[in-house]
Amino acid sequence: MRYLKKRLRSFGFAFAGIIAFVRSEPHALLHFIATVIVVAAGCYFHITGMQWIALLTVIGMVWITEMLNTVLEKVMDHVAPDYHPRVKWIKDVAAGSVLIAAIIALIVGSIIFIPIIF
Hints:
The chain is mainly α. It has a single domain (2-117), classed as Helix Hairpins (Orthogonal Bundle). It is built from 4 helices and no strands. It has helices at residues 2-24, 26-44, 49-79, 85-117. The model has no long low-confidence stretch (mean pLDDT 95).
């Protein structure tokens, strides 16, 4: 029983982290709005199971990369509050991972929705 309580408590911490991320980061609001629009469009157009898998995978990829990018930026700002070229490189690469995830998500969404809409 104690093990189960610890696991449930860890889920609480994880949900608190997601809520803190959405409340504090401007990009999180954009991702949230995009997620709602894409899920609504998927429901409206009755996309297939495989299309749902593709969309949910890339949506998750964007959320995960954005959250990890945010964590990395916060850690680097804490560790090195002044400008440092290596810190800039770390932050730029992390931001690049979000951009790649977003571009792939856009491509997947386009492949699914453009033929349906047009």
